[in-house]
Specification:
13 strands, 353 residues, disordered C terminus, 13 helices, alpha/beta, 41% helix
Length: 353
Amino acid sequence: MADVVLVTGVSRYLGGHFARRLTAEPSVSRVIGVDVIPPPHDIGRAEFVRADIRNPMIGKIIAQAEVDTVVHMNVIATPTHAGGRSSQKEINVIGTMQLLAACQKAPSVRRLVVKSSAAVYGSSPRDPAMFTEDMGPKSLPRAGFGKDSVEVEGYVRGFSRRRPDTEITMLRFANIIGPGIRTSLTDYFSLPVVPVPLGFDARLQFVHEDDAISALLRATTGPSVGITNIAGDGVITVAQAVGMAGRPILPVPRLAAGMLGNALKRSGLADFSADQLQFLAFGRGLDTTRMREVLGFEPRWTTREAFADFARGVGPLVPGASAVGSLVGSAVTGVAGGAVHAIGHLRVPGRND
């Protein structure tokens, strides 16, 4: 049973909201939230400690507070939020290594909960209809957040061998979505014109931000369950999602999609990697049997309902955005920069995360 809980990444949207919800749990006597900057949001009764998990100082914090449960939520998905790809990898990989080293030395730590990602499964045309937790990727993530998540999980497995007395739970979340959280996919579906790989209509699964927090709470205060997929029921396709967001589609050949994704990333309109474009072409499905039968968690929101809740908060389509048919020809011939320039002029104000 969790008593003194340390939560990493509390200055980010999901980490802060989780810490606040955790302080309301009657079984938890103390919550310590750590991050490199003060949280811009309310974290309830949680005590904020300014600390960098890449610094060995994190070990002193765990030891002095006699932390028994560590919830690691500081694996960052978007490099722009971390100050660039190099900083993102350092926080995700080096930060996790330092945190696990500190946990290994602390005899008080009895449980580790890690917010992982379904990105570890990759995305390819050879994927099964639904990934179960014991399946490996058909195509390993080659870069970015997916690759970091694979490395993080590897370090956690190493930690479990060195500290077999510590309970381990890793939650592999489908893409988290909702009216408040901001991710590369929420930026993508908020574009006034949404570029979609030509000839593909990938299946997508989502988990609502409220359900994500509830699943983390269950993993922290409930049974230890090892690796568990977390996703809302059902799937929607990319085209259905774009329609629900009220955006026109810009079909783009896959070669041009990569070029367009890089241009969008450089322009600051959306944050894309090659793996994310692969995901938009082939999608991914998660089997959630273990989530229900072992973790004992039932999401309140289906995939469609979660996306609809996000879509209600997306800004209205700007005038003139429907008149983008000429962009298709430019994208087909590989002139992605022209498409990005036009999309940029149609951009709606971004939402805060």
